[in-house]
Amino acid sequence: MYHDQLNGLLALKTVADTRNFTRTAKKLGVSPSAVSQTIKQLEQRLGVALLTRTTRSTSLTEAGERFLSQAAPALDQVLAALESIGSYADKPSGLLRLNLPRHVYPFYLAPLVASFIKEHPEITVELFFEDQQSDVVEKGFDAGIRLSDILAKDVVAIKLVGPVRFVTAASPKYFDKMGRPKHPEDLLAHNCIRPRLGAGLYERWEYERKGKEFQVQVKGSLIINDSLLMLDAAVDGAGVIYTTEAVIGDKVRSGKLEITLNQFACSSTGFYLYYPKRSQVLPKLRAFIDHVLKENKRTAG
């Protein structure tokens, strides 16, 4: 019913502007008889004549003028909104909201975002940092970035970087005091800094030996929900951390952190940009996807 009423309002306003059913029909892309029928249906619902029609002219009745004087501003806003959203759908623009773990941005994503913003200044990129797995649709994000291991099966995923190697590390002063583990099970005697991922703790650290994966459930006196602050705590000697090798590369080279259990390190296929499966991807997200694919091709070449 509301759809028919909106059509009737649109037809009435256009007739009032053009004073001609034929020109109105051409403008709306329908037949003159369809315009006439739509307005008649509106008049029947309102119970009052809105137009005066003669063989020579068409004009608003007093009721029609009063009605349009009140309805036209709102209708203009609706039409402007429809036109605006139409151009939005055709042109990459607007706010692109991405959900990602905090440490991914400085070590993996910053150059990609910088080049994308330079190429698409009409798109604003919002980065929301969240280390745990997140439902991007429910929280209003256009896409998320996570490790391949935790992605849901009902999403589209595009590789950003990988493979990603996971290592165990601590400050040299910590190892000098507490000893260096020879096997992952030796971590049971160490103070391990555990990350908080939403409601849960990541305390089952994963390792690999001769192609066989296994886990060690670690303990420790420090829990942190910020992956970058966790690195700072390790540098300060607070304990052992488990993280990606690239994230601590600079700190290892500078001697602030030392990797241990290297022979047991395991890998993930990498970090992926993911978004829900749907029939239409908004231009702003499509532009970012195309940029990712272009950069992946450039670095691979």
CATH architecture of the largest domain: 3-Layer(aba) Sandwich
**End-to-end distance:** 57 Å
Shape: rod-shaped
Unreliable stretches? none
Strand order, sheet with most strands: 4-3-5-16-6
Report the CATH topology name of the largest domain.
D-Maltodextrin-Binding Protein, domain 2
Count of extended strands? 16
Return the CATH class of the largest domain: Alpha Beta
Q: What attributes does this structure have?
A:
single chain, 301 residues, alpha+beta, Arc Repressor Mutant, subunit A, D-Maltodextrin-Binding Protein, domain 2, five-stranded mixed beta sheet, four-stranded antiparallel beta sheet, 9 helices, 16 strands, 26% strand, rod-shaped
Per-chain topology:
Blueprint: H1 2-18, H2 21-28, H3 32-46, E1 51-53, E2 58-60, H4 62-90, E3 94-100, H5 104-119, E4 123-129, E5 143-147, E6 155-161, E7 164-170, H6 172-178, E8 193-197, E9 200-201, E10 204-209, E11 212-217, E12 222-224, H7 227-235, E13 241-244, H8 249-253, E14 258-260, E15 266-268, E16 271-276, H9 283-300
Parallel strand pairs: 3-4, 3-5, 8-12
Antiparallel strand pairs: 1-2, 5-16, 6-16, 7-13, 7-14, 7-15, 8-9, 10-11
